Amino acid sequence: MTDREVKAAEGPLLESKLREERRFEPPADFRERAWVKDRTPWEEAERDFEGFWAKHAEAEVHWFKTWDRVLEWNPPWAKWFVGGETNASYNCVDRHALGSRRTKTAILWEGEPGDRRALTYEDLHREVQKFANVLKGLGVRKGDRVAIYMGMVPELVIAMLAAARIGATHTVVFGGFSSQALRDRIQDAQAKVLITQDGAWRRGQVVPLKQWADEALAEAPSVEKVVVLRRVGDAAGAAMVPGRDVWWHEAMAGAAADCPAEPLDSEHPLFILYTSGTTGKPKGVLHTTGGYLVGTTLTAKWVFDLKDDDVYFCAADIGWITGHSYIVYGPLSNGATVVIYEGAPDWPDKDRIWAIVEKYRATIFYTSPTFLRTAMRWGPEYPKRHDLSSLRLLGTVGEPINPEAWMWYHEHIGGGRCPIVDTWWQTETGMILIAPLPGVQTTKPGSATVPLPGIKADVVDEAGNPVPPNVGGYLVIERPWPAMFRTLWGDPDRYVKAYWSQYPGRYLTGDGARKDEDGYFWITGRVDDVVNVAGHRLSNIELESTLVAHPAVAEAAVIGRSDPIKGQALSAFVVLRAGVEPSDALKEELRQWVGEKIGPIAKPSDVFFAADLPKTRSAKIMRRLLRDIAEGRALGDTTTLTDPAVVEELRQRYIAEG
Ligand code: PRX
């Protein structure tokens, strides 16, 4: 080893000792029919990077006016398709409604109580135009911000596309967020109008969105008008404020049906989406129009191999970037049929998602590893109740997928025949950057494989030097991409500092990764999720994957709690699979298991059996709270949890068990 390699191996990097040997080739018939069958796009992009993007921007997106320059890159400030004019709403709606897809179904929607609606592209065209006129009537002008606080209803999509149509910038706030979170986001964006609904259905209960919106608005005076969709009716008891609030259906009844899409500058702000950073203040990630549309349209087409006869079902919430890019903009821009489900995956029973796949004959399914691990815990009898033979492609996003969850997905959902695309990206990247193209790439369970055509990523050490194969480091993106965020809303300094200062000109993702000898990327998780045990850095994710690979384990979270001797000691919080009995012998077995799989240093000091793990509403395990429990501290902020009771119960039991 050279000095640098020694330093890299000892540096602030992840040690990766878990190896995955399984390989999966694209099935021959899949490859045969796939959009991308060979490596030509990668070669084209390397030969002529800007030419590559120009070619696809031209082919995949409608422009009112073509661009003068493909890219203007003054690091870290990017402009794409400079001088071009387009409109996201036109691309997602008009070009299909006015073309050959007029009567094609755009949205297949299912409410939690079982009600159903189907909207053709023609229907969507009419509704979006009408609502755009409603917004105009409420005083919304190009450049104004419109906040949207709704559940998973078709009107959420209509509202987004209506705002985009007239050049208003939408900011969707996840319907599971509290009134405080909504208030903070509205205040930061200075939104002029809020669109919400009386209430949303969740596990048969009403989520009182309008009531929470009212609480937020008490301290968010920028909002002049509120549009309220009637979804649950009297059950919500929503009170309308005269002069400020209007019902969606009443406003729509009087709206004209014609509202042409406004030609917008390629760099016109399309939306702001808030995401959490390392400080308490959420970051307003800003995406603009032309580049975002090119990036999401092309990646939706290639990564999901989206064809006209596909039925595409993404189980994410539109309140997150996954829903923005891969429920709304990417799929609709491709003219796809998109399934949208309103409610909880275990309502009325744990087979709801699979029932939906069967009912609509979904061909593509996209979800998170957390959901898959949950489904694993529930057991394969739930998917077995349904005919899932329509599926031809599966995807995951949001966190590293444990090889065992990948295999479970492959077998129990994909029937062994569907390629799996593990897609790595972020709110900031706007589009998928690292993922297999399913007709080309051999997959390895747990790896997002390689960067997409045109994307250049690497794994580097503290000083920015590439690390050797299988040594952990920091994941960076080496050059701009069309759907990249352009800044943080109202905070350009933070944009520069948080993402572009450590390695000037290169984008710091905040994730740790390693590349294997084949150049495959293995994302090990956020760099802040690193445990240092006796000077050895281990990835929480790898430890957790190892535990989940044990037949008794459904879910696991591993944290480092401070230890006077080793610096940090590992505590494992483990959720057992249904039917497995907890015992001290099993605790010891799990410790040994991890020791065997990764190395003695990785053996958890203690194993604690939990009924459930505390998760944020975006389904991330909050290790910070587990650390608080393990270290006997008062619990930190629990306001972003799905269910704060989980963590309190865990704490009580942890104390009781000593
Ligand atoms: O840590 C990575 C993880 O999710 C982070 C981005 O979170 P967010 O902005 O909420 O967007 C999630 C949906 C795109 C990343 O920094 N992440 C996302 N996808 C993967 C992943 N980690 C591993 N593998 C993935 N496929």
Written description of the protein model:
This protein is α/β, with parallel strands linked by helices. 33% of the residues lie in helices and 23% in strands. It contains 21 helices and 30 strands. A seven-stranded mixed beta sheet has the order 5-4-17-16-18-19-20, with helices on both faces. The longest helix has 17 residues, at 121-137. Residues 1-17 have low confidence and may be disordered. The site of adenosine-5'-monophosphate-propyl ester (PRX) has 21 residues, from helix 12, strand 20, strand 24 and strand 25. Adenosine-5'-monophosphate-propyl ester (PRX) is lined by residues 275, 321-322, 397-400, 422-427, 448, 509-511, 523, 525-526, 618.
In short:
The chain is built from 21 helices and 30 strands. It has 658 residues and is α/β, with parallel strands linked by helices.
Tags for this model:
658 residues; alpha/beta; seven-stranded mixed β-sheet; globular; binds adenosine-5'-monophosphate-propyl ester
Walk me through the topology.
Elements: H1 3-10, H2 28-33, H3 40-47, H4 49-60, E1 69-74, E2 77-82, E3 85-86, H5 88-97, E4 105-110, E5 116-120, H6 121-137, E6 145-149, H7 154-166, E7 169-172, H8 179-189, E8 193-197, E9 200-202, E10 205-207, H9 209-217, E11 225-229, E12 245-247, H10 248-253, E13 264-265, E14 269-275, E15 283-288, H11 290-303, E16 311-314, H12 321-333, E17 337-341, H13 352-360, E18 364-367, H14 369-378, H15 381-384, E19 393-397, H16 403-413, E20 420-423, E21 457-460, E22 473-477, E23 487-488, H17 492-500, E24 507-515, E25 521-526, E26 530-533, E27 536-539, H18 540-548, E28 553-563, E29 567-576, H19 584-597, E30 606-609, H20 623-630, H21 644-657
Parallel strand pairs: 4-17, 6-7, 6-8, 8-11, 11-12, 16-17, 16-18, 18-19, 19-20, 29-30
Antiparallel strand pairs: 1-2, 3-13, 4-5, 9-10, 14-15, 15-23, 21-22, 22-24, 24-25, 26-27, 28-29
Helix pairs in contact: 3-4, 4-11, 5-6, 5-7, 5-12, 6-7, 8-9, 11-12, 14-16, 20-21
Bound molecules: adenosine-5'-monophosphate-propyl ester (PRX).
The site of adenosine-5'-monophosphate-propyl ester has 21 residues, from helix 12, strand 20, strand 24 and strand 25.
